[in-house]
Write a structure and sequence with these properties.
Helix Hairpins; five-stranded mixed beta sheet; alpha+beta
Length: 477
């Protein structure tokens, strides 16, 4: 990763430097050519262009005097320090500080001081004269004041010096950029190296690895996502280990009871009677229920739980389940109260699974409600809005609330109440035949219907469980 990032930086630097060098060379060459051969040194490049346009339009140098400025105010005046005058040239007073026009044969066409003068270019003056080119053909010459002579290799020498200066600047800039790229690569890759080390240790089984997170950039987001993933994996592994231990514990007790009773009957300690087979059957039923609960949980986790969705009267299901538990409640001297809202419409649900949820909740309530207490079951309907602003959708939900008058749920147990095999009172629950999966299964079945199941403490005392089911299932549920 470091090498790739460094190579990427180097590639960007090289492309940038080469691009800048190429375009600067092209621009510099053009400027040098204009400066030397197009009158740029005398600030006469505009006049050169005008003269070429005039000749192309008229085909001759007639009436060309109008293009020249008055004598003494035109080109070649310099800055008073001799600029524009070469060695051995005529003085500014002699040249008049102006330009002379000659035709293609070197014959004088325009003299700013003597319009009728005649003359011709000397051989050495051809070297310093500015050629006027039309359609690739030289049609005249513009002679600078003083007849300044440039060497034939002056352009190549000047470009060579400029290119050498450009190369030196490029090398210095490239070196500094490369050093900066190395520092940036080291700085930017430091959190990536930390992530790599943590991921490697996690792959070796250490799920406690976390990385330091700072800032709000993409790497910080990646670090937060990694920490969240690591925490989820660590929590999942702890739950898996805990669940494995719990399953082994739950299976060991009924199996031990069965084995002890069967061995006693085989050894003749207990006679083989219906009465002595009863405890064996009870433990077998407990094992069967535990296996069925585990299968339900596994199917719900995998999203493969089959639901027989039909129009269902929630009030009728609640009434049926309550009547089924009434004898047990009477034995425990617990009052079962029921309040049904008749205005609730028929919902689409799996009747058997809804019954299973209510049975688990009422079982739990009866376990933790003392003698002389009461359990209240009520149904109602409400409308909830889901979605974001313009996409909000109003959906109707049927609610079932089960309140008991027990001691309530301890605050430290409330976040874990729906975890598998979690019991507030393990010994009491196990003695009464519970598997520790009832509430976990109830929530899973509620979620499979597109609903929710929450637990809380009733402000008036006791525990409160609220089951919410959509009246009509959405396409996603």
């Amino acid at each position: 990763m470091r090498l790739r990032l460094l190579l990427a930086f180097i590639l960007v630097i090289l492309v940038s430097l080469l691009g800048v060098a190429f375009f600067m060379h092209q621009e510099t060459a053009q400027e040098v050519y204009t400066f030397i051969y197009r009158g740029g040194i005398y600030e006469a490049e505009d006049l050169v262009t005008e003269l070429e346009d005039h000749y192309q339009a008229s085909g001759s140098w007639e009436n060309v005097a109008s293009l020249f400025p008055p004598p003494g105010t035109g080109y070649g005046q310099g800055d008073g320090k001799g600029r524009g005058l070469g060695p051995g040239s005529r003085s500014s007073s002699e040249a008049g500080g102006d330009l002379f026009l000659y035709d293609a044969g070197g014959n004088l066409v325009f003299d700013p001081h003597n319009l009728g003068a005649e003359g011709s270019l000397e051989d050495e003056e051809f070297l310093s004269a500015i050629p006027l080119v039309v359609d690739g053909e030289t049609v005249g010459y513009l002679l600078p004041p003083g007849g300044h002579v440039f060497g034939q290799n002056v352009e190549a020498e000047l470009l060579g010096q400029l290119n050498q200066a450009l190369l030196s600047a490029a090398l210095i800039a490239g070196g500094l950029a490369l050093i900066l790229a190395l520092l940036l690569a080291f700085y930017l890759l430091r959190p990536v190296r930390e992530l790599t080390r943590a991921a490697t240790r996690m792959s070796e089984g250490d799920l406690t690895q976390r990385v330091r997170v700072g800032g709000k950039d993409e790497l910080a987001t990646l670090g937060k996502a990694f920490n969240h993933m690591a925490a989820s994996l660590d929590e999942g592994e702890q739950r898996r280990q805990s669940m494995t231990a719990d399953i082994a514990h739950e299976l060991r007790t009924p199996l031990a009871v069965q084995r002890a009773n069967l061995e006693a009957m085989l050894d003749g300690v207990y006679p083989l009677t219906t009465k002595n087979l009863g405890p064996v059957l009870e433990q077998n039923q407990l094992l069967t229920r535990l296996v069925a609960d585990l299968r339900t949980i596994a199917l719900a986790d995998a999203g493969e739980l089959d639901l027989n969705i039909l129009p269902t009267d929630l009030n009728r299901i609640v009434s049926s389940v309550v009547e089924r538990f009434r004898p047990q409640a009477d034995r425990q001297q617990i009052s079962l109260g029921i309040e049904l809202e008749s205005a609730c419409p028929v919902l689409e649900a799996d009747r058997d699974r809804i019954e299973q949820i209510l049975i688990n909740l009422l079982n739990n309530a009866l376990h933790y409600t003392p003698e002389g207490g009461e359990i209240r079951i009520s149904t109602s309907c409400n409308t909830q809005t889901t979605g974001q602003l313009a996409g909000q959708i109003a959906r109707q939900f049927a609610l079932v609330e089960i309140r008991d008058s027990g001691s309530g749920i301890p605050p430290d147990a409330l976040p874990h109440i729906f975890e598998r095999f979690y019991r507030v009172d393990r010994s009491r629950s196990r003695e009464e035949g519970g598997t520790g999966l009832g509430l976990a299964i109830a929530r899973k079945l509620a979620e499979a219907h597109g609903g929710t199941l929450i637990a809380a403490n009733n402000p008036e005392g006791g525990a409160l469980f609220r089951l919410s089911l959509p009246i009509r299932r959405s396409s996603k549920s």
